[in-house]
Amino acid sequence: MLEKLKAALKKRETVVICAKCSIAYSGRAESYLPEGERIIIIKEDTSVIVHQPLGNNPVNYMKPPTSFKIAADNNHLHLACINEALKENLEITLLQIYFLESKKLEDAASLVLQGSERHFSDYIYQHPSLIEQGFKPLSREEHTKYGFIDIFGYDQTNTLVVIECKRFKAGPDAVTQLRRYVERIKKDKGLSKVRGMVIAPSITKNALDMLADYGYTYKQIDPPNYLENHKKNQKQLGEY
After folding, report:
1. CB neighbours of residue 13 within 10 Å
2. pTM of the model
3. Separation of alpha carbons 73 and 7, rounded Å
4. Which runs of consecutive H residues, i.e. helices, occur in the chain?
5. Does any domain span residue 231?
6. Domains: count for the chain
7. Partners of 14 in beta bridges
8. Which residue range forms the structural domain that includes residue 31?
């Protein structure tokens, strides 16, 4: 295991180790983790991540550039991870190694992030006919003292419309926020009439009642399936 680990680190391969180990850290603070079974990942850029069996956050980590020193005694491996620039040291004592593998990995892809509330309102802004016939979008994220209006525009009668978009079910909070925006726009622009609208895939009854009380409207629009093109050829679990 000693020579295998040395060779992998020398070749700058990604290393994955499952082992019983204890860990001592010094740097931003000092810590000691008594022996337990953990997953240790050393990436090709020399960053180090240590995970316990449960949870998604690492219990220890080291940022690159990290150098390594390996020693063995009494059937134990000692892996010293040193970041001189940050004055950090991670000392991992490997008491029992269950699994140690390494591989030169290649991944030039970038994460495709879609489906946020911002993407939803952008989509609606770019397709104004979804809102209503004759709607003319004026701006995205119009600033007020209460925050940013999602969509701002004019209807076919040239009445100003303030739109609050929600990616999921809209509740009373969305209506309350919309009312703040509408009243602020009325005051700032000296208008007696400004329409308010909530756009969402669904809405609660309380929110719908509030809209009616204020004279606002609700438009049901489902978010597009942003990533459907990436899923067309992907098998479902039942197909295996």
Report:
1. 17
2. 0.60
3. 19
4. 2-10, 117-126, 172-189, 205-214, 228-231
5. no
6. 2
7. 103
8. 2-103
